[in-house]
Amino acid sequence: MSNTKLTWSDLFFGGQIFGACWFAIPQIWRSFSSVRAVSLGQLGLVAAFMAINLWLASDAYREARKTPHGTADAGEGRRSLQLIITYSLWLALSLGMVAAIALNPAYRLSEEDGEMVMFAGASTIAILLFSRLKGVPLADPMLKSLLGIAYKAVPQVLLASVILSSRRADGIPWETIAAGHFTAGLRVAQILLTHKSRIRFWLGVSEGANEGTWLLVTLAWGFVTFAR
């Protein structure tokens, strides 16, 4: 069973590396010359989401390296290490996209950029207040997961509402829709293959919220695109 899990984990990991590079590298290259239909604010929040989940994945890796008796478990450690590499790659690629857009003199911040960042900031303050009032430490996996949701899932709900209210989705190609589901789905599968723990649960909640809200974006995109 352990070998089967490792095989599936390796396949999901390989698919994740391919999907991340296939989606992000061309977008980074394009952003040096064209910033049409891109949002610096949203991509900055994507980078924050990846950083938070990398933090959770690192916690899970440290936990997975030991059995209840304190001995190393190579299989669990390998699967958890693959998650660290996955989120590290996505963080690097996200920061690359942010840098490429920021360096393009044609880019101008939009109202949507400001709204997303302000909403994420307000959500962060609310989460920190909750932490203080309830006495929950900032390193708690639940708080990290809530921050991840604030930086990725909530902006995607706002994006879906913008698509529906404006009746415009031409700025989002189908490749972006497909890549979002492909890579998020693989990350969820990777998480499910790691050892069961409270850290894994909240990492799964963060990533599951990402996939669920991207489905809302997909439905809004499909409605606007095909209902014309």
How would you characterize this protein structure?
The chain has 228 residues and is mostly helical. The chain has one domain (2-226). It contains seven helices and no strands. It has helices spanning 2-31, 40-64, 74-103, 111-134, 141-166, 174-193, 198-226. Helix 1 (2-31) packs parallel to helix 3 (74-103). The N and C termini lie far apart (50 Å).
Question: What is shown here, in short?
Answer:
The protein is an all-alpha fold and 228 residues long. It contains seven helices and no strands. It has helices spanning 2-31, 40-64, 74-103, 111-134, 141-166, 174-193, 198-226.
Low-confidence sequence ranges? none
Pairing-aware structural class of the strands and helices? Answer: mainly alpha
Order of helices and strands: HHHHHHH
Cα distance spanning the termini: 50 Å
The major β-sheet equals: none
Question: What gross morphology would you assign?
Answer: globular
Helix content: over 70%
Total strands: the figure is 0
Mean pLDDT: 88
Strand content: under 5%
Counting structural domains, the number is 1
State the helix count: 7
**Rg, please?**
18 Å
Please name the defining characteristics of this protein.
228 residues; 7 helices
SSE layout:
Layout: H1 2-31, H2 40-64, H3 74-103, H4 111-134, H5 141-166, H6 174-193, H7 198-226
